[in-house]
Structures are given as structure tokens and as C-alpha cells.
Amino acid sequence: METYTAMREFADSWALLAMTLFFIGVVVFAFRPGSRKQADHAALIPLKDD
Description:
The chain has helices at 3-30, 35-44. It is mainly alpha-helical.
């Protein structure tokens, strides 16, 4: 099997599944209960004078 063909088949199947699961995990992590306080804190970091 040619290298390009093997990589193409992998990208069309398992890599797409892995990227989709990663995306869903990031969305769930960002919108989980209790993350708003942490996000608000992180958003104010550049505005703090140390």
C-alpha cells in the first residue's frame, strides 16, 4: 500500500473521529458548571497592575 493512500485512509476514518472527540471534550470542558468564575478571572489577568 502506498504511503499516501494509507495516510489518507487513516485521516478519513480514525483521525477524524479523534479530532471530533477532542473538539467535543474541549466544548464540554469550556461549558462545564463552575467554569465561568475561572474564565472571568483569566479574562482580567491582562488588566491587573502588578
